[in-house]
Amino acid sequence: MRGADNGRNDVGYRFQLEKDFIEGALSKEKWWARLVFWSAAGALGLLAVLLAQVAEWANTTFLRIYNYSHYLPFVICPIGFTAIWLLQDRFFRGSEGSGIPQVIACLRTRSTTLRDQLLSIRVLIGKFICTFLGLLSGASIGREGPTVQMGASLFNFLGHYARFSKFERRQGLIIAGAAAGIAAAFNAPLAGIVFAIEELKGSFEERTSGLMLSAVILSGLMAIAIMGHYSYFGVISVGLTGIQSVVCILIIGAFGGAAGGLFSRMILSLKSRLSRVPKEKLIYAPMSLGVIVATIGFFSKGQTFGTGYHQAQQLLEQADHLAILFPFLKFFATVASYASGIAGGIFAPSLAVGAGIGSLLSPLFSDYPKEALLLLGMVSYLSGVIRAPVTSFVIVYEMTINHLLLFPLMACAFIAVATSKLVCKKSLYPGLAEQFLAKQQDGKSGNLEQT
To answer: Could you tell me if 187 and 271 lie in one domain?
Structure first.
């Protein structure tokens, strides 16, 4: 009898599962939620491409102004930085900085109000406009970090209207939007997935994986549909062989990681100090830092303005006209740009600094292809800055499609992270998120740009 009862129970259980599956598949609410989600993923891919296009135009336009007169940046940079700071303070609070610390803070807080302040359509619009204006003002910033916050904002916003569960809206949608942002910005789907797991791992769970993967795929397909298949630095087929390559990887990994750790330490320290400055005096920070960026650009002959992609490309093409001090000058230009509080990321400038480090160390390893040394420099410095080694080497790998250098890139990334930790105990993005959340808990008023 018990066997018969168990058989009937199994049949009933399977019947209920089939019924639930059919009802879920035919549910209008679930299909509406899926349609909204898929549309948002496609829209994010379109936004990423649009931001890339306007960023390139802004970068080119500023360089034309600089070529017309090398002294104009001394007017444009401080005025531009200050105007962006005021615009953010008045209309787009929450759009400051790279945006990744804001995403991490939102995933760590239970405050729905704070989450909707930092991840909203208003912030998305502000992020787009202010990143564009920052590049038009000569700032040493990138667009990839802003695309992460734009993606998280778009997906968080749709959670209010597509009847997603609270868990999905708070975790899955935000993580999916952030991952899709990285994937679309770099045309690197694997990097988007790894970034979500590695950088947002404190909030990543198995339940979010389906949302994240579909968002990455759809946003990436939209970007490819518009731009086609491409890699930022083309296809580079160079590798390292021999026992001496181990020494090369160790030195470049350690040097790049230490430099990345120093960058993180300087940013965390500057942001902490600026957070204690009264608001009426804080406006002088972007003005002063704008002058510093203009001064560095003047002495570098314009090489430190903008994202740095063109300089990295020139180094890979073995151009010799870049200043030998380029990695140091780009380093400090990026510190000043990010510390000013204007919208803009650090991924692209970090790749440029890393390429400069590889070029600087290349005479020590003249027997190896210079392109390989530059790629190792990119991975080591980026890993040292963001403390996400897998994300770093996957980004560089997908930007160059270099199978021969995959294992050296991996080794260099992990060596860089270990060295970075010796220089700066805290990781940059979580450290900035902690500063922001601590300030909110203390009940202090002020701008959100301290993240």
So the answer is: no
Render 117-138 in DSSP notation, one character per residue: HHSSHHHHHHHHHHHHHHHHTT
Instruction: Calculate ∠ Cα 42-137-71, nearest 5°.
Output: 155
Confidence of residue 366 (pLDDT cuts 50, 70, 90): confident
For residues 387 and 394, what is the distance between their CA atoms, to the nearest angstrom?
13
In a domain, 235, yes or no: no
Domain that holds residue 342: 244-450
Q: What is the mean pLDDT of residues 184-210?
A: 66
The whole-angstrom separation of Cα 77 and Cα 386 is 26
- Phi and psi for 301 in degrees, rounded to 5? 60, 40
Lowest mean pLDDT among 20-29, 56-65, 160-169, 255-264: 20-29
Residues 397 and 336 reside in one and the same domain: yes
Domain boundary among 227, 253, 286: 227
Q: How far apart are CA 237 and CA 5, in angstroms?
A: 65
Cα–Cα dist 198/134, whole Å: 28
pLDDT, one tens digit per residue, over 50-77 is: 898 999 999 999 999 999 999 999 999 9
205 and 294 housed in the same domain: no
* Residue, of 26 and 388, whose pLDDT is higher: 388
| Total domains in the fold of the chain | 2
Of 199, 227, 255, which residue is a domain's last?
Answer: 227
Dig out the tokens for 31 from the structure: 């299909």
For residues 194 and 219, state if they share a domain: yes
Q: How far apart are CA 78 and CA 294, in angstroms?
A: 8
Identify the helix (H) or strand (E) that includes residue 33: helix 28-68
Alpha carbon distance 434, 436 (integer Å): 5
Q: How remote is the C-alpha of 162 from its chain's centroid? A: 27
Cβ–Cβ < 8 Å for 333, 296: yes
Residues in Cβ contact with 221 at an 8 Å cutoff, skipping those fewer than 6 apart:
42, 45
Q: pLDDT tens across 388-447, in order?
A: 888 898 888 888 777 778 888 889 999 999 999 999 999 999 999 888 787 766 654 444
305, 205: one domain? no
57-66, 93-102, 158-167, 255-264: least confidently modelled range: 158-167
